[in-house]
Amino acid sequence: MLLLAAAFLVAFVLLLYMVSPLISPKPLALPGAHVVVTGGSSGIGKCIAIECYKQGAFITLVARNEDKLLQAKKEIEMHSINDKQVVLCISVDVSQDYNQVENVIKQAQEKLGPVDMLVNCAGMAMSGKFEDLEVSTFERLMSINYLGSVYPSRAVITTMKERRVGRIVFVSSQAGQLGLFGFTAYSASKFAIRGLAEALQMEVKPYNVYITVAYPPDTDTPGFAEENRTKPLETRLISETTSVCKPEQVAKQIVKDAIQGNFNSSLGSDGYMLSALTCGMAPVTSITEGLQQVVTMGLFRTIALFYLGSFDSIVRRCMMQREKSEIADKTA
Amino acid sequence: MLLLAAAFLVAFVLLLYMVSPLISPKPLALPGAHVVVTGGSSGIGKCIAIECYKQGAFITLVARNEDKLLQAKKEIEMHSINDKQVVLCISVDVSQDYNQVENVIKQAQEKLGPVDMLVNCAGMAMSGKFEDLEVSTFERLMSINYLGSVYPSRAVITTMKERRVGRIVFVSSQAGQLGLFGFTAYSASKFAIRGLAEALQMEVKPYNVYITVAYPPDTDTPGFAEENRTKPLETRLISETTSVCKPEQVAKQIVKDAIVVTMGLFRTIALFYLGSFDSIVRRCMMQREKSEIADKTA
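C-alpha cells for the assembled complex are given below, as produced in the milestone run.
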C-alpha cells in the first residue's frame, strides 16, 4: 500500500519534470540580441557584458566614467565571435535624472535596435554601524542602487511589452535576502530592488517579459575592495561564513538564468539554500523549482536559525571585547 | 519504536515551550513609558497612540499638519487612565532633513524623558502600472516611507543603546512581503524597511533593543481611501483576496508584538495564490486589448 503511494508520487514528480518545459518561458536567443548593461565598465557588469558578447550579443555599456567605458569596450571586443558585433558606450549617471536615461536608451535603440535584455548592474556598497554611517549614505545608496535600476527599466519596459519579448535583470545581493550587521543602508536598497522586481514581474508576465533578480555573494571586484576599506569588524567576521566568488562565475550564472527567464538567480550551495529559504511569495518559472522550495523550506529554516544564532554571538562577543578594552583604556 | 520517537518529540517541544520565556525579551512596561509615534495624527498611527495611551504611556505625536495633530491629541486624551499622562504634539516632515528630526526628538526627550518606544508609522501608498506612475513617485515614496523611518530611528538609537532598553517599530505592509501588480514603487519602499530592520536588529540585539516590523493588510484609514482613488483594476481585484481591517485591530496587534512545519504547506498555498494573481492580470490584459480593438473598428 505504502509502496503503491510512493510509486505514484515518483511518477507524478517525473510527469511534472517532463511537463515543465511546456510552461517555462522560451529561452532568449543571444546571438544578434541587443543587451544593455548599466554599470558595465567594471566588476560584475563588465563580466556580464563579456559573457553576452561571447554568445553573439550586441552590447551597449552604460556607466559614468568615459575612460573606464573605453577600456572595458576594448576588453570586451577581444571576445568577439563574428565581424558584425558592436559594443556601444554611453556615459551617464543612471540615478540622476530619468529624462537623461530615457535619452540614452533612445540613442542606443537608434544604433542597435530595440533592447532585448537590460541588465541593471550599476550599484555600490557601503557598510558601517547604523549610527556611524553618514546620514546622506542612506539616500545615496537608495538613489544609486534602487532609482538607478528604476529609471533604465522604465525606459525600456514599454517597447518590451509592445514587442512581447524582453528580459530585465536586477542585481541585488545576498544582503538583499537577509539583513546583516553593518548593512542597514545597503540591505534596504537591495531589498527594495526585490520588491520592485516582484511587483514588476506580475505586471509584465502576460507580455512575455521576464524579470531576473540576481543575489550574488561577496564577489572579487573593485567595488568589493572599496567596500572593505570601511567594513566594521562584526560584518567582516559574519561575511566569512561564505566565500568570495570570481565575477566571471557570477556573470555566467546570471546570464544563464536571465536567458531562461528564471526569476531567481543565485550561485553556489549557500546561494541555493538562501534563495529557497527566502523565496517567500516570489514567482517560480519552473515546476521543479517550486517543488524543491516546498520540500526544503523547513530544513533550511532550521539551519538558518543556527546561522542567526552564530551571527548574534559574533556581535555580542565583539561588543564585550570593545567594552573591556574601553575599560582598560580608562584605567590605563 | 515509532511511539517512543513521537513521545520524545512531544516532550522536546514542550521543553522548548517552557524554556522560551527565559530567552525571549522581557516585555516593555508601557505605564509611564515615553512612546513617540510618527504619522500619529491619523490612521494606524493614531490608533497605536491611543492603544499605548490606554495602557498608561506618555505620547509624543509627530506629523506635518498642526491642525490634525491637535485634533488627534484631543481624541487620544479622552482615553487617559490617570492625571499625570501627557500627549505632546510636534509638527515636522520626518523625511525632509535629518537635523530637523534630531531636534524634534531632543525637544520631546527634554519634556517627557528618554524615548522608550519609537513607532515609525509615517507613510503613504500609491499604486499604478510601472510605466504609468509619475517618475517622481518612486523617489517620493522611498523618501517618505523609508527615509522617514530611518531618520527618527537614527535619532533615538544611541540613547536606547546606552540605556540598554528600547523598542523600534517599523510599519511595513503586506505589500512589503510580496510584490503585487501596481505596487512597484510602494512595495520597493516597504521591502526596504524590512532590509533596514533585519540589519538593525542584528546590530542592537545585545543592547536589549528590539525591532518590530509590522505587516498590516489593507486597513480602513484616510490613507487607504486616498490610495484607492487611483488604483488600477488588476490591483483592486487582487486585493480582494484579503479583507479590509479596522485600524484599531491592527494597532492592538502591533502594540502587543512590540512590547513579546507548516512552512512547506504555506509555500504550496502561496504558489496557488500566485497562479490566481497571474491569471487575473492576464484576463484584464486580454479584456483591455479586446476593447481597444473594438474602439478602433467602431
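The CA atoms of residues 140 and 185 of chain B lie 9 Å apart. Chain B touches chain A through 67 residues (CB under 8 Å). Further analysis is deferred to the final report.
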